[in-house]
Design brief:
Shape: elongated
GO cellular component, one term: nucleus
Strand order of the largest sheet: 5-4-1-6-7-8
Helix content: 40-55%
CATH class of the largest domain: Alpha Beta
Radius of gyration: 19 Å
Family: Belongs to the HAD-like hydrolase superfamily.
CATH superfamily of the largest domain: HAD superfamily/HAD-like
Largest sheet: 6 strands, parallel
Number of strands: 8
Strand content: 5-15%
Number of helices: 10
Distance between the termini: 7 Å
CATH topology of the largest domain: Rossmann fold
Protein name: Haloacid dehalogenase-like hydrolase domain-containing protein 3
Length: 238
């Protein structure tokens, strides 16, 4: 039977948008612009270490801990370069500010294949649409720059709401904004825990975007798996 859905909520990173190149390459290009030659692979490893440590100390971009998300990210960028041997404060600050700005634009993000078409078709079918993302407050701007913002009635970020997926409260806020009960809503995302399982825990339907050959979680029924976004409407309407 066709699902009686009225609201679709969407994850963003690796669902609708992805980085155009690895983080280490973007950081190495910025370093090179300042006359520093650093290896992208090493910078990528430094970034993962700095990002992980900052996330443990100050979850959800420092929300509720007196940090702005901009300061949170500036600290991550500076620590990434420090771990790679750069210690001059002036150049660290300059690179951090440049990278914070660059990651706010289509310069560093690209739309995943099938995303624009699928979102357009969902809007044409009359679904209400919203974003539910563990992202900082640059997301509205990123979506606008990538020409996706107009598809959505609302954009909920973990920074704005104060709760990050898989916390049920970010999904409850989305249901409230969409004005529908959970059984009339579905969430689309690529992460088993934060997207698929978390949405189902509040009573929503959920679809897991997963390319062939990615890890098989036993609890995901085959009719909930999207090999590509283009499969979504067929699954909803079958």
């Amino acid at each position: 039977a066709m699902l009686r859905l009225r609201l679709l909520t969407w994850d963003v990173k690796e669902t609708l948008l992805r980085l155009r190149r690895p983080v280490g390459e973007s950081y190495a290009a910025e370093a090179q612009a300042q006359g520093l030659r650093l290896q992208p692979g090493a910078l990528g490893r430094s970034f993962r270490e700095a990002y992980g440590a900052q996330s443990r100390l100050f979850p959800n971009y420092g929300r509720g801990r007196g940090l702005s998300s901009q300061q949170w990210w500036v600290d991550v960028v500076k620590q990434t370069f420090r771990l790679s041997g750069v210690h001059e404060d002036g150049v660290l600050t300059l690179m951090a500010e440049n990278l914070y700005r660059d990651f706010c634009s289509a310069h560093n993000w690209e739309v995943l294949p099938g995303a624009s078409e699928t979102l357009s078709r969902c809007c044409q079918r009359g679904f209400r649409m919203g974003v539910v993302s563990n992202f900082d407050n640059r997301l509205e701007n990123v979506l606008s720059q990538c020409n996706l913002r107009h598809h959505f009635e609302f954009v909920l970020t973990s920074e704005e709401v104060g709760f990050a997926k898989p916390d049920r409260r970010i999904f409850e806020k989305a249901l409230h904004l969409g004005g529908v009960p959970p059984e009339q809503a579905a969430h689309v995302g690529d992460d088993y825990t934060r997207d698929y399982r978390a949405a189902r825990a509040v009573g929503m339907h959920s679809f897991l975007l997963r390319a062939a050959g990615q890890g098989e979680e036993p609890e995901v029924s085959p009719e909930h798996i999207l090999p590509t976004l283009s499969h979504l409407l067929a699954l909803i309407e079958k």
